[in-house]
Amino acid sequence: MHTSPDPAKFYLLATLLAKDRVITNNGRALLKELILRRDKRLLMLLQDFETTHLSDVFVNAIHALIETEAHALYLELFEQFPLEVAKSLSKIEREANELNNKKSLIYGEIDFQYFARVLRKINPTKGCKFYDLGSGSSKALFVARFLYDFKCCCGIEILGGLNEAADSIVQEFRRNFAKTLDASFRQDVHVECASFLDTDWSDGDVVFANSTCFEDDLMADMGKQAEKLKPGAFFITFTKGLGSDAFEVLERKRYCMSWGTATVFIQARKRHDGTSAYHADLIEIIDDSSYDDDFDNGVPGNCTHAALSLLPPLYEKDANESGDGGMHFFDLGALLPRSVHSGFRIEACEGANQPVRSPR
Questions:
Q1: What are the backbone dihedrals phi and psi of residue 304, each rounded to the nearest 5 degrees, phi first?
Q2: Cα Rg of the chain, angstroms
Q3: Which of 86, 141, 241, 349 could cysteine-pair with 213, CB 3.0–4.6 Å?
């Protein structure tokens, strides 16, 4: 007679995985919430663990489940601030201050699942500090906050309207969401209204800039300031690299977004003598889809394979069940009960003729 796996065994396993940095403490806390709900998806995973043990397929499925739970919280947190609201706040302020010619201020949003994937490759340690330069309504901050054990997630945004919206989201997080995460450290999120060129972020361990629309001068100035980071610090940019000899490019990979493909640069600060300060390898992810540098036709339909590859073949069921007319996801007992590709969306900039998908 088959017996159901003991959920307590899964929590013990999650604790051991967190201790070995296979998952984060926040990831363990999210799994604990699923355990308390006796979520059937966990029971299915534990059954698979008892037969496959700690395989890459199993670990990938654990991460997919954690990211699904984090994404559900993320969607709830931003329910009152969808893309259209943020775009409107940005446009109103740019028009009021005659800043429409400032290409770098065009509003764009990261994709939850792909940004989570980039952070997982870096696998930042507990107590690191995360910065988002040009943080908008704070979406990248909360991908980092929900999934990783950063000491603080700090956003710097020059437009007051967007920063005010981000601050209200931070307050909502503190009231109703922080308690869901690991209680052993403060789940700090901070946003500041300023130019990141006039702000000190030299204590950052992981720095991100959605730089697709940044002008060359701004990229050069940001790269120069980035040289103040400590050796080994990571800097993530989109579309273009920092262009600084003080950084080495660990990975340059084109990921599929809802509007097409975008090049993601993962860079690390070298030592002051110019030698590499990073001697480990980035975390490998099963079926990490990428594209040749010259592939950029911007057709969302070509992105389907990248989305499908998030879950390992062990859990494939029916790639066409979602019926949403867009990307489709495998189903592990509804492991991904809703589409998790919120989409990298941008108003207009390089590649602005690409189609823009509205949120559902």
A1: -55, -45
A2: 20
A3: 349
Please give the average per-residue pLDDT across 172-178, as a whole number: 97
pLDDT number for residue 256: 64
Contacts of 307 (CB under 8 A, 6+ apart): 113, 256, 327, 328, 329, 341
Contact 115, 143 (CB under 8 A): yes
The Cα-based distances of 330 to 55, 116, 310 in angstroms read: 19, 18, 8
Q: Which strand ranges, in their side-by-side order, compose the sheet holding 206-209?
A: 188-193, 152-157, 129-133, 206-209, 234-238, 260-269, 247-257
- Distance of alpha carbon 185 from alpha carbon 179, whole angstroms: 11
Domain 82-360: assigned CATH number: 3.40.50.150
Beta-carbon contacts of 304 under 8 Å, excluding residues fewer than 6 positions away, are 327, 328
- How does pLDDT run across 257-309, given as a tens digit for each residue? 545 577 999 999 999 999 999 888 898 887 676 544 444 433 333 454 333 33
* Residue 28 clears pLDDT 90, i.e. is over it: yes
* Tokens describing residue 280: 């480990």
| Listed residue (17, 155, 139, 120) closest to 73, CA to CA | 139
Residue 181 has pLDDT above 70, yes or no: yes
Q: Domains of the chain: which residue ranges?
A: 7-71, 82-360
Band the pLDDT of 231: cuts 50, 70, 90.
Answer: very high
* Sign, Cα dihedral of 277, 279, 284, 288: positive
The whole-model pTM stands at 0.80
What is the dihedral sign for C-alpha 81, 84, 86, 89? negative
Position 106, amino acid = I
Residue 306 has what DSSP assignment?
H
> Of the ranges 101-105, 246-250, 257-261, 318-322, which one carries the lowest mean pLDDT score?
318-322
Task: Answer for the pair 331, 314: CB distance below 8 angstroms, yes or no.
Answer: no
**Which residues in 177-186 are b (16+ Cβ under 10 Å) and which e?**
bbebbbeeee
CB atoms < 10 A from the CB of 83, how many? 21
